[in-house]
């Protein structure tokens, strides 16, 4: 019963934090508000939530990473694949070495292996936090795709690095060859298992649906279970469950076309996954806030081990580590950019040269989040000889502080850096969209003509089929007429389309109010009222996104 009450309190905290975020005049990221609400809940009444890292990883990370992999634009990921890999692999190693030695120099009481473990766990950026920041501080699309791709892949490299640093702390030895072999197996096996899971489940589901029909609820439930299946299967063979969930999500976007689900299934599945994403993201950061008072008190107890007797040094450590992370990231991005521009010049191209502000945006947008929190909590409690793991509470506090400060730094600095920033032009897909509209309309007209011929042939009421077909095809012929315009008229056509969209929204609002009124007066049955309102809602959703 207590667990149920705790879950309900967490859900209410997510709702309250969302309401506060909408009411605040300042663009404060939602995760920061959720952390603050969680801390208030903990101080008001300790819920006694014991955060078990393995459960945390299993419950929250697979669905969120699966969804990010599912929805990330594949064209952008393919185009910038080398940049993403540089940041997901090379930058992680660079950060572990740089921040590890810096932390050891700054806090001599923390063993070097533990400092490396801390550096490894704060090196991965978090896709959940990156997305949350981007909602309040719009980031250029291409840069956002790079950040998302990096955060999806660098979790494995960071966690594997942490695993070897912890092993060195426990045994006092380290093997570079063994580390590389383990990393290779962890990454490759995780990716293969994730992709295989999605393709196998999709094939079985598609076969069953074709033979016995599709049931919307079951299909949605299957999509919710795929990331957990991929994660658990990978973990069973000591592969990366995180990469397996990401690979399963990316594979899902390629298998959707073969599924040919009902439109109703796609609509409801989208709504369910949006809700899962909102709830999981919110609960993660509320739990972090709820744990914050305990983390601070635990770190304050061990702060004297560092040679300083004032708790304010804890804050100084956090700020300095964040500055080191941002500086190393800035250096890596700048050097990588120089090499990219040099290659382009050698090939005879004249690429866009971004300003230092865009490099700074890339550096500060690499915020930390849930993976860092869950990873640092997996640090062992004791060494093999039974003595306490050195500086464990301090490492947990520093990692938590890095999450908070990185969110604050990004939310404060990004709006300033992005204001008036000159960006490379985004590629326009208008022509491709127009060609697709024309091809789709022509295919639709041919399909209607063929259906009218097949269905009306030899019937006494064939004229009814002809009349109905003409009405359906008129809409598609109007679309073709709209597409066959000159470039000079394109601007006016877009303005007309925008005005028409707004007029349709006003008309749909009036329709909905009328249906509600008829329902209240019992001039329509409840079932019919719900059906008509849903039709209007779907149309309004379409034109609202238009």
UniProtKB/TrEMBL annotation:
Q: Per its UniProt record, what InterPro entries does this chain match? A: Cation/H_exchanger_CPA1 (IPR018422), Cation/H_exchanger_CPA1_bac (IPR004705), Cation/H_exchanger_TM (IPR006153)
Ranges annotated as spanning the membrane: 55-72, 84-107, 113-134, 155-177, 183-204, 271-292, 312-337, 358-382, 394-418
Subcellular location per UniProt equals: Cell inner membrane; Cell membrane
Name the GO terms of the biological process aspect: regulation of intracellular pH; sodium ion import across plasma membrane
| Primary subcellular site in the record, as a coarse category | membrane
Origin superkingdom: Bacteria
GO annotation, cellular component aspect: plasma membrane
Q: Which family does it belong to?
A: Belongs to the monovalent cation:proton antiporter 1 (CPA1) transporter (TC 2.A.36) family.
Protein name per Swiss-Prot or TrEMBL: Sodium/proton antiporter, CPA1 family
What is the scientific name of the source organism? Bartonella apihabitans
